[in-house]
Amino acid sequence: MDKIIIVYMKKNKLILKERDYIILKHVYDYRFLSGELLWHLLKSDNHTDSIIYSTGKDGRNRPKKYGFKQQTLSKRLKQLYDAKYVERHYMTDQPYGRGYGSPRAIYGLGKQSSKLLQEIHQIPQYSTRKIVESNKVKSPYLRHALELATFRIVLELACQQSKGKFSLLNWEQGQSIKDYVNVIDKKGEKRKIIIYADAFFGIRIRGRKNKHFFLEIDRGTEPIVSSSIRSNIRSKLTGYQYYLKSKKIHKKYEFMVNGFQVLFVTTGKVETDNTLSGRIANIFNELVLNKILYSSEALFLLTTPQSIFLSNSESIISNIWISPKSHNLLSLIE
Question: What one-character-per-residue DSSP string does 37-63 give?
């Protein structure tokens, strides 16, 4: 039987049900979610292999359903917001008003969520409170976090819908994947390069070896090359090369990871004839035109956010990834 918690508000009482616990757990797991992303997650919950059943008033067992219409979800999110279980965030650098419509809310955890998440999901209250406090971020970070969440959700949906052809081995982000590699620069001096991707994940492919990837969500805020100590794309690219050669990742994952590729999702366009323009062309040319610097062109794959569709999750593993080595569009699993 579902556990029900009654929260008293000023005028009405809000009765939290199992779908609300699931909503809060999703927001905890992904940190920031739009209503659309959350709706797709709830839809996928309704089509999992492990179906949970509940007994109706007539004594018959039926599968529980967590999915519901987007309009219904919007109303429920407003109720959770009013009760301070979720908080609304907005990208303030986007135009809004007449001709643009209202800004879309992005949801993070609210201050009332910590006790509930501990009680239902055994998540320590201090962990939730830390997230709530750190969610006070500016628009560029918010947009980056939302793009990262979108990539992860589309990938998870693709794995769920593959009927066992491929599955997600792991997904890691944050401090746990931060590492470094020591290199000798042109002056003969020892230098430390930090390796800190947005995410690291693995895919199990039926009948083939597992594949692992570092993910970089690039919004064009870093220069391709910089003469200063400022972070730049060239130092990232060369850093991954050195990191692969160092084989540090083998030891870190106890030899369960033999190698990896680096995925760049960046701005720009990829035409049907594989012609590139914008930021993706700049990174591609950096790799292709500087062969002295990059001996492992096959290490990198590039695409744009416009090539990844939430409504067609299979797009993320299809031939949308351009390789600087072959100049062809490749799939992640082939």
Answer: HHHHHHHHHTT-SS--EEE-TTS-EEE
Kind of pairing, strands 106-109 and 86-89? Answer: antiparallel
Residue 117 pLDDT more than 80? yes
Burial 127-158 (b: 16+ CB within 10 A, else e): ebeebbeebeeeeeebbbbbbbbbbbbbbbbb
**Per-residue pLDDT band at 1 (split at 50, 70, 90):** very low
Question: Which segment, 38-52, 56-70, 284-298, is predicted with the most confidence on average?
Answer: 284-298
3-class secondary-structure state, position 305: helix
Looking at residue 296, its pLDDT comes to: 81
8 Å CB contact between 168 and 156: yes
Domain with CATH 1.10.10.10 in the chain: 5-136
CATH fit for domain 5-136, picks 1.10.10.10, 1.20.1740.10, 1.10.3720.10, 2.40.290.10: 1.10.10.10
Task: Give CA–CA dist 141/129, Å, rounded.
Answer: 19
Place of tokens 């990834």: 321
Predicted local confidence at residue 56, as pLDDT: 61
Sheet arrangement for strand 33-34: 33-34, 106-109, 86-89
pLDDT at 287 over 80: yes
